[in-house]
Amino acid sequence: MTLGGVTLGSVTLGNVTLGSVTLGGNATPKPGSSAEPRQWKVAPESSIWLAEQRFIMEKFTTLTGIAAHLPMINVDTDMIIPKQYLKTIKRTGLGEGLFAELRYDENGTKDPDFVLHQEPYTNAQILIAGENFGCGSSREHAPWALLDFGFRCIIAPSFADIFYNNCFKNGILPIVLPRNEIDKLIDDAARGDNARLTIDLEAQEISGPDGGKIHFDVDPHRKRCLIEGLDDIGLTMEKAPHIEAYEQKTSLARPWA
């Protein structure tokens, strides 16, 4: 791919190699001029290199794990991951800051009464919460922090729209259930005897250790993306042959472009 006079060399995004990339003007140096296109190397810390090391979303089919209970309404994204943790663009390490203002005091000491500091919830993979979970700002660090802690499924009566969408894009299954079903799950989890649940995405069922089952709804497209581990980039890469064919056709029709 040629854009002009500064060559970056071979650039790879994900699994797609763009080839030699040249930035600048296409003008030929004037006679007698010693001007030559400058050659640039892509530094390992560049955004192009980071794109090559992109996040691979884990598939979600069936999950069996501990369900932690957080019976609070309007838990916003600042409560999920406070603003001081937003300086990074990395997805890892944010689990330590998850619910930081609830988990730690002003000196950074753990609150032993907070649910995620109690057994068996220290290893919880399912979170049962109250209405309007994930409201507030649109920060994608919120699902990143939940995922980094170990959560793969959030169950609540309702979610904020942007947070709900971001969950699917990061491999987390958000499940909406009626208030009475939520109350039962919270009560069981709080007593510890029914803290372990199984989430079967293919069957769209939640199963408890007592054998009871709860059906849930999920958009078919989002269901497929979770089962196959497809984020937005993964969906785009499914069309890679069509994209390559279009680029080849375009390069023949418009060789100057």
Overall tally of domains: 2
- What is the helix/strand order? EEHEHHEHEHEHEEEHHH
| Percent of residues in beta strands | 15-25%
- In the CATH hierarchy, the third-tier topology of the largest domain is known as Aconitase, domain 4
**What helical percentage do the residues reach?**
25-40%
Class computed from helices, strands and strand pairing: alpha/beta
Globally, the shape reads: globular
Give a count of the beta strands, DSSP E runs of length 2 or more: 9
Can you count the helices? 9
The CATH architecture of the largest domain: Alpha-Beta Barrel
Give a structural overview.
- The protein is built from nine helices and nine strands.
- The relative contact order is 0.13.
- The chain has 257 residues and is an alpha/beta fold.
- It has a seven-stranded mixed β-sheet with strand order 6-5-4-3-7-8-9. A two-stranded antiparallel sheet has the order 1-2.
- The protein is globular, with a radius of gyration of 24 Å.
- It has two domains: 1-54, no CATH class; 62-234, Alpha-Beta Barrel (Aconitase, domain 4), CATH 3.20.19.
- Residues 1-8 and 10-52 have low confidence and may be disordered.
- The protein has helices spanning 47-52, 77-80, 100-103, 141-149, 161-169, 179-191, 220-228, 232-237, 240-253, and strands spanning 6-13, 16-23, 62-70, 126-129, 153-156, 173-176, 196-200, 205-207, 213-215.
- Strand 4, helix 4 and strand 5 form a beta-alpha-beta unit.
